[in-house]
Write a structure and sequence with these properties.
single chain; Arginase, Chain A; 8-stranded parallel sheet; 10 strands; globular
């Protein structure tokens, strides 16, 4: 399992693994992409694009180069072997946590989050999850597979339980998924982020994992994603969400998934992802300092 800093790292994340507090890794995985593949290329594209992102965030009033972050690059995954890929993602996350560091995962398809959340849950049994996404991801199975980017959260629910999952921006899914959520299994907010501030206040003293699917943003903002859904959020809405995450005293891990850079030749989608990753990394560092 490679845990050394790579030659091409995100931004100014040049700390060694041993000295780092936050560890970035990316998952080149899009086996279950149900419409347009390409998320396997997200990690590399974000790293290249990050050279155009300032170290300093005026939103956080923090400078990335003042914090110890290591980027270990793309995980080496066996092509097409989904179960083995998930095992590697799980073991990597588990090792990062065991070493006293905070994992920041970059997808890849959203199924990768199943493995990272499982590893984080084993460390924090009272884990709560905040999902920003266009899709419910609550199907029991999809195209004959139990584990898929369209089912991952339903299977996460099996170990975290009722009342621990908070979904925002949801605007696509099968009717039974919305009904299953409404029956008390998850807290699902359709179409927007209304109420996220109250949820973050409520969860401020419990361990929280934040998972963000880039398709929560409108395809006019981010066309570079596999399953774009019109009617989404604007980037300023996402920045507002980051401000709410600042209330969380125990933000223990995060991920940012589903960028398909090749679907947006303009590069705008990758620029959004790179800047969002900076904000998430800084939020993780800020929680460590409390």
């Amino acid at each position: 399992m490679k845990m050394n800093k790579v030659d091409l790292s995100f931004q100014s994340c040049t700390a060694t693994y041993d000295e780092a507090d936050v560890v970035i890794f990316s998952v080149p995985m899009d086996n279950t992409a149900s419409f347009r593949p390409g998320t396997r290329f997200a990690g590399h594209a974000i790293r290249v694009d990050s050279f155009g992102v300032e170290w300093y965030s005026p939103y956080r009033d923090m400078d990335l180069k003042e914090h110890k972050t290591c980027d270990i690059g793309d995980l080496e995954l066996p092509f097409g072997d989904i179960e083995e890929q998930l095992r590697i993602v799980y073991e990597t996350t588990k090792q990062i946590i065991k070493d006293g560091k905070v994992p920041m995962m970059v997808g890849g398809e959203h199924l990768a989050s199943y493995a990272t959340i499982k590893a984080v849950f084993e460390k924090y049994p009272n884990l709560h999850i905040i999902q920003l996404d266009a899709h419910t991801d609550l199907r029991e199975s999809f195209f004959g597979r139990e584990l898929s980017h369209a089912t991952f959260l339903r299977h996460v629910h099996k170990f975290v339980g009722d009342g621990k999952i908070f979904q925002f921006g949801i605007r696509s899914g099968e009717k039974p998924e919305f009904e299953w959520a409404k029956s008390g299994h998850t807290h699902l907010r359709k179409f927007d982020f209304e109420g996220l501030d109250q949820v973050c206040q409520k969860l401020k003293d419990v361990p929280v994992y934040v998972t963000i699917d880039i398709d929560v943003l409108d395809p006019a903002v981010v066309p570079g994603t596999g399953t774009p859904e019109p009617g989404g959020m604007q980037y300023k809405d996402l920045l507002w969400a980051f401000d709410q995450f600042d209330q969380l005293n125990h933000l223990v891990a995060a991920d940012f998934v589903e960028l398909s850079p090749m679907l947006d030749p303009s590069g705008a989608s990758t620029a959004v992802a790179a800047k969002s990753l900076r904000e998430l990394v800084l939020l993780l560092h800020k929680k460590l300092s409390k």
